[in-house]
């Protein structure tokens, strides 16, 4: 399988070939500001205790991290939403690896601030075999050190390209998570942790899978 980052870099190259640089300037600015803010240093590192959570899946049923960890190591994938082509590509890569996740005795959930309805549509459209959980207001993402507030200039940018973040989130929230991946051992401790301020950069699923298989 083509490495995930190669697939994401292709999306970036196509976008830059089609979209004038001035149109992309707000997104580029936000990445630079997130880097400068030290966002990557705030994520929970390996060796931290993972926050427990109970979040609704696409069908509205509560999924508890404690219940999942009772069955095996847990891969937690935080993503921005189904409107993000990088997130879609990443979750499709995990879809292809999911049989190996189960073979390793692990479980996986993907968490975003989008509504259950958005998640239900996404799971069906992309044939995702793992649970998509809704994290209103990025509360759980914040506990993992990933949440950030979208600045006004970037809100205008999203409005201009018809991405209605509050509608997608089902409220008034303009918060997003840094796309991040964690692996939590059955004892509740984080054994793998990676997130990037640049939404176009994602950890390779194989690395997280290896960590889960070693638990």
Distance between the termini: 24 Å
What is the class in the CATH system?
A: Alpha Beta
Shape: globular
Please summarize the sheet with the most strands. 5 strands, mixed
How is the largest sheet built, in terms of strand order? 5-4-3-8-9
Number of DSSP strands? 9
How many domains comprise the coordinates? 1
- What's the alpha carbon Rg, rounded to whole Å? 16 Å
CATH superfamily: Glutaredoxin
The stretches of 5 or more residues where confidence is low (pLDDT under 50) are: none
Mean of residue pLDDT? 97
CATH topology: Glutaredoxin
- Count of DSSP H/I helices: 9
Explain what you see.
The structure is a single chain. The protein is of the alpha/beta class. It has a single domain, classed as 3-Layer(aba) Sandwich (Glutaredoxin), CATH 3.40.30.10. It is built from nine helices and nine strands. A five-stranded mixed β-sheet has the order 5-4-3-8-9. Strands 1-2 form a two-stranded antiparallel ribbon. Helix 1 (4-18) packs antiparallel against helix 4 (85-103) and helix 4 (85-103) runs parallel beside helix 9 (205-213). The two termini are 24 Å apart. The relative contact order is 0.20.
């Amino acid at each position: 399988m083509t490495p995930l980052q190669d697939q994401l870099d292709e999306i970036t190259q196509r976008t830059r070939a089609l979209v004038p640089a001035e149109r992309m300037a707000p997104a580029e600015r936000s990445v630079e500001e997130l880097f400068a803010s030290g966002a990557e240093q705030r994520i929970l590192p390996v060796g931290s205790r993972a926050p427990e959570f109970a979040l609704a899946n696409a069908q509205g049923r509560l999924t508890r991290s404690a219940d999942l960890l009772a069955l095996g190591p847990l891969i937690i994938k935080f993503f921005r939403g189904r409107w993000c082509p990088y997130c879609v590509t990443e979750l499709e890569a995990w879809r292809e690896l999911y049989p190996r996740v189960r073979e390793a005795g692990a479980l996986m959930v993907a968490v975003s601030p989008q509504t259950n309805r958005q998640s239900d549509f996404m799971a069906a459209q992309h044939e995702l075999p793992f649970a998509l959980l809704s994290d209103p207001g990025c509360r759980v993402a914040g506990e993992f050190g990933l949440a950030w507030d979208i600045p006004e200039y970037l809100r205008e940018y999203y409005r201009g390209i018809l991405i209605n973040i509050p509608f997608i989130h089902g409220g008034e929230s303009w918060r997003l998570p840094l796309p991040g991946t964690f692996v939590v051992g059955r004892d509740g401790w984080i054994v793998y942790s990676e997130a990037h301020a640049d939404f176009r950069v994602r950890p390779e699923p194989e690395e997280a899978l290896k960590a889960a298989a070693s638990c």
